[in-house]
């Protein structure tokens, strides 16, 4: 029987890629994807719990979908992802129209969907997931996500991920190598290795060993990875970034705060000075590297002086870009139970200041590239202008170029940077 599935994905790249795996498994069950929830036989919410806002967004969508079930009694609704694992069966109390719930380490249960259905709740730790090669349905054709590890063991005091995703487990490097080789044969040019803390990859080799292995896959031109934890960023890895031709000159290295006292309460296990030292070394060894980061504004007990240290850090380090968030108390986490929670107005003000300062830095960083020639991988049509194509530099900057004959998705071209904006640059291809 012909069946359709609609997946609504919230949250990070890991969830986006998990949804690709769900589609891969469901395709084998005879499902095809649809963009319209009203037409679907199965609706999956792949949820995110990182901040309260993400959770609220999901529950309001879940409420909205209730009417679909009344109109289509055969419709099945599933809740997956980080809220699923965190809440388990509690979700039914809040939303009785949900049929089943499964966590990020339990995707394989979808394989049994047609034969006799699945358990109502599947959220247990599943160390086997790292050994499995789950089928993946990718749409892009040029860039691909590849999971290298599951879960997180770090327990940063503000973060729900270790509770929502379970313990760390690394895929065998041979399985990853095979997947990447198959992607190369299919025409993919760029891969991004995924893990909550890729630097603590511990398969049959360490993360640097894995990069060395993948750098040899012919056809793949670019290798990226997210996310790196500053405490685990080894000199060995920095040397690998310097020496391996396909590993791109970009690192996302979340700082979180410029105050070592706050970092300690966050359980980040590095000081601001440690962080700065690693950044200096990265910039020495990997010329042209772009460094991006995450910042949390208004952690419990954060003083004005702590906040000023974050502001000072932004000015000192000059990140290429940041994501910044107001601290949000999350279930099970230590920080949620700490004293000294700040009023929302203080968090908002600090966030505003952080973003304002960074905006200026981001623009000036982009401006400093004007006149240079960069290699761009064309990713497709620009979302805002159908006469233009967009792509990225190796340092992950978004570049737009005029459409011209012969310039197609997947092409690697040399482009001269002509104009800088806050979120992108404009360029024109140059003859070599
Ligand atoms: N594993 C990655 C990222 C995890 S979540 C890492 O360790 O860096 C992405 C970002 O969300 C974090 O870097 C942090 O800045 C932010 N974040 C996580 N929990 C948060 C919370 N409770 N409130 C506000 N921001 C949070
Ligand atoms: Fe969360 Fe820290 Fe793990 Fe990142 S490393 S996912 S911030 S606990
Ligand atoms: Fe990602 Fe959100 Fe889970 S950021 S790991 S989907 S809590």
Q: Can you offer a commentary on this structure?
A:
By secondary structure, the chain is α/β, with parallel strands linked by helices. Among the domains are: 4-122, Rossmann fold, CATH 3.40.50.12160; 283-368, Transcription Regulator spoIIAA (2-Layer Sandwich), CATH 3.30.750; 373-429, Nucleic acid-binding proteins (OB fold (Dihydrolipoamide Acetyltransferase, E2P), Beta Barrel). Helices cover 32% and strands 22% of the residues. It is built from 13 helices and 19 strands. The strands form five sheets. The protein has a six-stranded parallel β-sheet with strand order 2-1-3-4-5-6, with helices on both faces. Strands 15-16-17-19-18 form a five-stranded mixed β-barrel. A three-stranded parallel β-sheet has the order 7-10-11, with helices on both faces. Helix 9 (235-243) packs parallel to helix 11. The longest helix is centred in the C-terminal third of the chain and has 24 residues, at 344-367. The structure holds S-adenosyl-L-homocysteine, iron/sulfur cluster and FE3-S4 cluster. Residues 11-12, 14-15, 48-50, 81-82, 160-161, 164-165 line the site of FE3-S4 cluster (F3S).
């Amino acid at each position: 029987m012909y069946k359709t599935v609609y997946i609504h994905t919230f949250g990070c790249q890991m969830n986006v890629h998990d949804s690709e795996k769900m589609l891969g498994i469901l395709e084998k069950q005879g499902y095809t994807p649809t963009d319209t929830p009203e037409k679907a036989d199965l609706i999956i919410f792949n949820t995110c719990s990182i901040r309260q806002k993400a959770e609220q967004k999901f529950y309001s969508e879940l409420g909205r979908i209730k009417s679909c079930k009344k109109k289509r009694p055969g419709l099945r609704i599933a809740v997956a992802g980080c809220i699923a694992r965190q809440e388990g069966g509690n979700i039914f109390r809040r939303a009785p129209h949900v049929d089943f719930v499964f966590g990020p380490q339990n995707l394989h249960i979808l394989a049994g969907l047609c034969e006799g259905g699945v358990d109502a709740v599947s959220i247990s730790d599943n160390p086997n997931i790292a050994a499995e090669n789950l089928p993946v349905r990718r749409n892009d054709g040029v860039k691909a996500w590849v999971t290298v590890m599951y879960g997180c063991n770090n327990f940063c005091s503000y973060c729900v991920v270790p509770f929502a995703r379970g313990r760390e487990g690394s895929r065998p490097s041979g399985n990853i190598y095979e997947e990447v080789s198959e992607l190369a044969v299919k025409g993919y040019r760029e891969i991004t290795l995924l893990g909550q803390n890729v630097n603590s990859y511990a398969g049959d080799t360490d993360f640097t060993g894995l990069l060395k292995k993948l750098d040899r896959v012919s056809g793949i031109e670019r290798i990226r990875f997210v996310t790196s934890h500053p405490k685990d960023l080894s000199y060995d890895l920095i040397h690998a970034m310097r020496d391996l031709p396909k590993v791109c000159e970009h690192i996302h290295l979340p700082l979180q705060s410029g105050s070592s006292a706050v970092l300690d309460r966050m359980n980040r296990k590095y000081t601001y000075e440690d962080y700065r030292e690693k950044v200096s070394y990265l910039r020495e060894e990997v010329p042209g590297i772009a460094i991006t980061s995450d910042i949390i504004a208004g952690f419990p007990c954060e003083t004005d002086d702590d906040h000023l240290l974050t502001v000072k850090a932004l000015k000192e380090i000059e990140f290429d870009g940041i994501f910044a968030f107001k601290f949000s108390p999350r279930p099970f986490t230590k920080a949620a139970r700490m004293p000294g929670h700040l009023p929302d107005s203080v968090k908002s003000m600090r966030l505003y200041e952080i973003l304002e300062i960074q905006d200026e830095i981001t623009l000036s960083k982009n401006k400093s590239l004007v006149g240079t020639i960069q290699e761009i991988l064309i990713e497709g049509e620009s979302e805002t202008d159908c006469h233009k194509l967009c792509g990225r530099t190796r340092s992950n900057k978004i570049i737009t170029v005029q459409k011209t004959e012969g310039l197609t998705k997947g092409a690697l071209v040399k482009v001269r940077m002509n104009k800088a904006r806050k979120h992108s640059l404009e360029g024109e291809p140059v003859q070599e």
